[in-house]
Specification:
about 210 residues; mainly alpha; Serine Threonine Protein Phosphatase 5, Tetratricopeptide repeat; binds adenosine-5'-diphosphate; binds magnesium ion
Length: about 210
């Protein structure tokens, strides 16, 4: 396999919606420890809306699917993470406009444009204990594996994604609500880093299985 198909992108979003349904309580529990206990509900609500909108665009190009997803998330998640996840998909829609399939380079560009958008909007950098730590781990690994087969690159990046998520446990939050806790934020896994890992893991599962 050398290309990610549009059908796999659609399956990714369906898988993600199911995952956020399943992990709602766990994400909320993580957010209870260092935030305001709404991240699980936010993600569940956002992807529920994506599922409402998806049938209208599932046969359109990948850019349209990404854009529709971004708009749905932007209008429903709220909080800090709504605009950030909205931006991830809206930026990812630009390079994928009119495309029906993506090779590894195109998939990497889609995600790296999304990460750039998240960082422009939220100003978080590596080590701030946010979703950015997960996406940086993913994108750094994809960049290092551009000449590997797609499946191998994704497996490596999935591993890195989990490590990125776990790396937030020992960090002190410097962005978002958790930063109000100062040192007390240390020792807790960041909710957004966790939902971002789920999102990437579901992308990998849609492609690899
Ligand atoms: P809120 O904090 O408004 O309640 P959520 O609970 O839905 O929003 O999302 C919290 C997550 O958002 C955090 O765990 C963190 O990963 C992410 N986040 C918060 N602020 C930023 C930021 N400036 N940049 C990147 N991610 C951020
Ligand atoms: Mg919250």
């Amino acid at each position: 396999m050398t290309q990610v198909t549009k059908q796999q992108i659609v399956r990714w979003l369906e898988n993600a919606a199911a995952k956020f349904e399943q992990e709602k309580d766990f994400l909320t529990e993580l957010d209870r420890q260092i935030g305001d206990a709404d991240h699980g509900a936010n993600m569940q609500r956002g992807f529920h809306k994506v599922m409402d909108k998806l049938p209208d665009v599932a046969d359109k190009d990948i850019g349209t699917i990404m854009k529709t997803t971004g708009m749905a998330l932007l209008s429903t998640i709220g909080g800090a993470s709504g605009p950030l996840y909205g931006t991830l998909f809206l930026r990812g829609a630009i390079s994928t406009e009119a495309k029906e399939a993506l090779d590894l380079a195109a998939l990497t560009t889609m995600l790296s444009d999304g990460l750039k958008g998240i960082q422009q909007r939220g100003k978080a950098v590596a080590g701030d204990k946010t979703m950015v730590d997960t996406w940086l781990a993913i994108l750094n690994t994809l960049a290092q594996n551009q000449h590997a087969p797609l499946e191998e690159a994704l497996k490596q990046a999935l591993n890195a994604s989990e490590q990125g998520m776990l790396s937030t446990i020992d960090m002190q939050a410097r962005k978002g609500r958790a930063s109000y806790l100062g040192e007390r934020s240390i020792g807790h896994q960041d909710p957004g880093a966790t939902s971002s890992h789920y999102l990437f893991a579901e992308l990998c599962r849609a492609i690899l299985s």
